[in-house]
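> tool_call: predict_assembly(chains=three)
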Amino acid sequence: MSQKNSDDEKRKSSQNEENALWSIVGYLLSGLIIWGGIGWGLDRWLGTTYLVLAGMLLGAGASIYLVWLRFGRD
Amino acid sequence: MGVRLAADEGFKPPSTADFNLPPVFGDNPFTTKPVFLAFLSVILISTFFILSARKASIVPSKLQFAGESVYGFVRNDLARDVIGHEFMRFVPYLFTLFTFILTNNLFGIIPFLQFPTMSRVSFPYVLALFTFVIFHYVAIKHKGLMPYLKEIMFMPGVPKPVYVLLTPIEVATYFIVRPLTLSLRLFANMFAGHLLLLVFILGGEHLLQGVVGLKLVSPFAFAFGIALTFFEFMVQCLQAYIFTLLTALYIAGALADEH
Amino acid sequence: MEGTLNLVGYGLSAIGPAIATGMIFAAYISGVARQPEARSVLQPIAFLGFALAEALALFGLVLAFVL
């Protein structure tokens, strides 16, 4: 029984790792696209040029924070 | 206006236009080569597995062994190891997905067929749509609609104003980025691989028609093309595996309770 | 042949994060191989490092299309 449990544990942890890597990329990508997209839209609307960059930085920061919340915190 | 290389008779480098194949019958857009390849793959897969399972015996024949090892791989290594104790419900879908994608990818390097069906983006889109509907349906069935949405949108342990920043990202990840990256990863790999093979084979052929110095270089282009064909074989198997693995991971995430 | 210089720039900018990701996971794997019980300590660090490096790669990707 304990053999099965430790096998289960091992499988869970390596599966979590695979899952985590794919979702990290997904979070970063959507953070950049969503907030960068909002910045881009504001740029088009207000006629400025720097809001894309501001939005992308904000999105990257927010998604790294999200990654830390999901996977880095114990 | 771009720079043109090989000015004399104009070597036309392979481009995206090489993927827009004309219809086979008249101008009916539903009779292009990729459509026929998709049908052919269905026929091939079902014939292979019906033949391999028809005379199943305790001591398996070679055919039965081949069929069973593919099935065993999907069931044990993908479904059981990733999804856990409720995996049997999803084996049929995962198995169909894996064999369908694998066969269609391999069409890219099989002589005379030589066109990976998945390099037309609509095929991966539809497959990703199936996965998308299935994993959301499973999650809603398993957790209930409101708790599921709450789990997606609101990370526990965050000060309230930060949700303004994080909730759009979470929603976009679950509803847009996941199906999009799933399909685009498969599409881009097949597309780029086919384009790469075209560049080396067509380029080698073009060099062969040049002056003597160019003729001497052309075998290297062909040799590289052949080496890349084996590389493509690896990529094609890997992409079929990854698509199925990610589907299984998403289903596992839908079934998992709050972590 | 046609194309824009943006994509060349993106190709160049992807070299850095690629090497970084390789080094992060090389260190993570050799750390876990030497001391398997350190996995739970190393894993969040490796993932955060991966996220930071990957964010730069995706930055390049998006900027190649936006600029």
